[in-house]
Design goal:
101 residues; mainly alpha; 78% helix; 0% strand
Length: 101
């Protein structure tokens, strides 16, 4: 159950850790494929196809990383808004400024 006091950052900790682990694994696989594909010099067409596949794999990794980042940013923004709404405090000395105006 989600309430105003719940935090998406805390509730999804295991999910986010899994996402980041998947991104790291995909990035390592893409890097390994780039190193293995570059070893076969002399086959220009094969190399071009391999590069397109690597770019595609790298684009997928980038998209996954951006998605995880966006989810964390949204969670943090939600927490900031909740803090501003429900934990609003008057700064020390602010009431003196209001009385002078």
């Amino acid at each position: 159950m989600h309430t105003l006091s719940s935090s998406p950052l805390g509730l999804n900790r295991a999910f986010v850790a899994g996402q980041l682990s998947d991104v790291a694994e995909k990035l390592e696989q893409t890097e390994a494929a780039a190193h293995h594909g570059g070893a076969g010099a002399g086959l220009a067409s094969r190399g071009a196809l391999a590069r397109r596949g690597e770019e595609s794999a790298l684009a997928k990794v980038s998209r996954d990383a951006a998605k995880a980042t966006l989810e964390q940013t949204k969670g943090l923004a939600t927490q900031v808004v909740k803090d501003m709404l429900f934990n609003w405090r008057v700064a020390p000395g602010a009431d003196a400024v209001m009385e002078e105006a």
